[in-house]
């Protein structure tokens, strides 16, 4: 039996709620649930009907008074999945399963206090001071969802103090190479013995594309006649670490960039080598949809593979340590050193706005600093 009632909020607005029978507990006592916040009676009727259908299908029905955090999370998840990319959804699920649900999954959402959240945040800060804010952000989303559905009235996260990292002495290591350091790196790579690695790192250094964009490249994306490369997709991870192809996040991410002559020649050599090797493996790589960088089974390479190659080269040759993303920084730094404008760098890297380019790539090379001082000295002339 379901009853629908009208009630008035403190601000004078009218809302509707329903109270429905959802079965019995282990003692035979009737279980009922209440849902509030509907703007019309029809909305309340539709919601109660859907809930009863879900109940018949064996789905969990949340009792407003005894709503468990994990149930509210699962309810929120059914809406969240339709608002974000697959990779973002997958990362969110991983954050909840690994960090948030172990703390709050079995707790009644009404009984979670700011002190409980503060303890979790302090623990998260200890193990991941760079990532904990993202976990806290997702936790807030669940409480906001609970407020929207009137399981609770206030978000306890608003009473929590977020820890801050204390800056240590010394400069943060630069995650890019200057011109000389790039030269030294490529001198450690033999194009003939490691043609794939040489080609891949050449692409990263001379185009500034992201790791996922690089591993998603096909030969159809290269226009050898016009010396261009088309960036319109990226390799990322979906649910269960499944590798999937997605479009770029933003419109600016879809871009066509120029490629220098030497890089085009290196690509041509790699394409010929790939055709010969993969033909022996039983694969026809003459198609435009063929991946430029593939596994021995002609599939997508694992995303960490580039980092493994890079770390080994750095370790074996005692080079300054950077990450794979550091090639993107190196490319931007080289563009600025060569005289490119902020706008030109933005377009080439596919940033949605100029501010992103300015925020991330504010570093300048040592030579640029020297040039600036020389210009100042020459201008003042005393």
Topology (SSEs and partners):
Layout: E1 2-8, E2 14-24, E3 30-38, H1 41-56, H2 69-80, H3 86-104, H4 114-127, H5 132-148, H6 179-187, H7 195-207, H8 211-215, E4 222-223, E5 228-231, E6 234-237, E7 243-246, E8 255-258, H9 261-280, H10 305-317, H11 326-337, H12 342-349, H13 354-360, H14 366-380
Antiparallel strand pairs: 1-2, 2-3, 4-5, 5-8, 6-7
Helix pairs in contact: 4-5, 7-9, 7-11, 12-13
Question: Any overview of this molecule?
Answer:
By secondary structure, the chain is an alpha+beta fold. It folds into 3 domains: 1-61, Double Stranded RNA Binding Domain (2-Layer Sandwich); 65-170, DNA polymerase, domain 1, CATH 1.10.150.130; 179-371, Intergrase catalytic core (hpI Integrase, Chain A, Orthogonal Bundle). The chain contains 14 helices and 8 strands. It has a 3-stranded antiparallel beta sheet with strand order 1-2-3, with helices on one face. The protein has a 3-stranded antiparallel beta sheet with strand order 4-5-8, with no helix packed on it. A two-stranded antiparallel sheet has the order 6-7. The radius of gyration is 28 Å and the shape is elongated. The chain starts with a strand and ends with a helix. The model has no long low-confidence stretch (mean pLDDT 86).
